[in-house]
TrEMBL record:
Catalyzes the cyanide-resistant oxidation of ubiquinol and the reduction of molecular oxygen to water, but does not translocate protons and consequently is not linked to oxidative phosphorylation. May increase respiration when the cytochrome respiratory pathway is restricted, or in response to low temperatures. It is a multi-pass membrane protein. One of its GO terms (cellular component) is mitochondrion. GO terms for molecular function: alternative oxidase activity; metal ion binding; superoxide-generating NADPH oxidase activity; ubiquinol:oxygen oxidoreductase activity. This is Ubiquinol oxidase. Binds 2 iron ions per subunit. The gene is LOC101770088. The keyword Transmembrane applies. Its main location: mitochondrion.
Length: 332
């Protein structure tokens, strides 16, 4: 088999797994879904699509009583039957204004108002060798980033968030395993780091409503995630103080990038479109919020991640342990 034939066969096999937003199974796997659903997978996962997938919810927040119901007879409404049998049907909620709660990926108690008064200019001066190395590494990424994205801020944000959501998950996972292994408390750091990862992923879901990744950007993310996850995993095992410092500098750079995004929005170089619905609900923004408001709260989140990670690194530098220093919980 020639290389070309082998490549075509591999792409045919892996393509749907790597580049679709939904699992490929059932009708989709047998090629019975409309062709458009496979050609435009990302569009199928947009806010509008999410709303269509989620059932109408009419009960007030906290007022639902979902008692298990008898299972449906065989072959009749089997999906509903399975949910009822196990009694794990998600609670149906409503917003404060009485309208339906549209999101299952986050719930009303996950929402918050970002602290936009946070200092955007804070910087940790690298002095020790690991700090200088971490700083150099982040700085070395800036030139290719500028060449690649120039002022395509939404595309840059989309790809940046796919990377930014990795360290919190890796750090949280490793601290979780350490807690189990050593029979010890975590000081809240497992939750704090997992919250950070989830917050970054919500940034990604938000910018997905503003820009769509091209196929080669999806491929780039795939490769970058494979490398970055493993590299960060090893770095965190070897030196948590270096790993947190690296993320601290990465977040400093994220703050800078979103500041540039805001400047272009203010200058009218980018259209200040209405804020995506998911952002309005997640950050409790006013109904008439615009993209500029969204970028402002995302930037505030990045500044908070910057401070948390520099703080975590400082704890290690001072010979203390994360588990003995209460984590900054409750920001998200
Ligand atoms: Fe982010
Ligand atoms: Fe961040």
């Amino acid at each position: 088999m020639s290389c070309r034939m082998a490549g075509t066969a591999l792409l045919r096999h892996l393509g749907p797994r790597l580049f679709t937003a939904e699992p490929v199974s059932g009708l989709a796997g047998r090629g019975l879904v409309p062709a458009a659903a496979r050609i435009l997978p990302a569009r199928m996962s947009s806010t509008a699509a999410e709303a269509a997938k989620e059932p109408a919810a009419t009960e007030q927040h906290g007022g639902s009583t979902n008692k298990p119901k008898p299972a449906a007879p065989d072959g009749q409404d089997s999906k509903k039957g399975i949910v009822s049998y196990w009694g794990i049907e998600p609670r149906k909620l409503a917003k404060e204004d009485g309208t339906e709660w549209r999101w299952f990926c986050f719930r009303p108690w996950d929402t918050y108002r970002a602290d936009t008064s946070i200092d955007m200019k804070k910087h940790h001066e690298p002095r020790a060798l690991p700090d200088k190395l971490a700083y150099l590494l982040v700085r070395s990424l800036i030139v290719p980033k500028q060449l690649f994205f120039q002022r395509r801020h939404a595309s840059h944000a989309l790809l940046l968030e796919t990377v930014a959501a990795v360290p919190g998950m890796v750090g949280g996972m490793l601290l979780h395993l350490r807690s189990l292994r050593r029979f010890e408390h975590s000081g809240g750091w497992i939750r704090a780091l997992l919250e950070e990862a989830e917050n970054e992923r919500m940034h990604l879901m938000t910018f997905l409503e503003v820009a769509q990744p091209r196929w080669w950007e999806r491929a780039l993310v795939l490769a970058a995630q494979g490398v970055y996850f493993n590299a960060y995993f090893v770095a965190y095992l070897a030196s948590p103080k270096f790993a947190h410092r690296f993320v601290g500098y990465l977040e400093e750079e994220a703050v800078h990038s979103y500041t540039e995004y805001l400047k272009d929005l203010e200058a009218g170089l980018i259209e200040n479109t209405p804020a995506p619905a998911i952002a309005i609900d997640y950050w409790r923004l006013p109904a008439d919020a615009r993209l500029k408001d969204v970028v402002t709260v995302v930037r505030a989140d990045e500044a908070h991640h910057r401070d948390v990670n520099h703080f975590a690194s400082d704890i290690h530098y001072q010979g203390m342990k994360l588990k003995d220093t209460p984590a900054p919980l409750g920001y998200h």
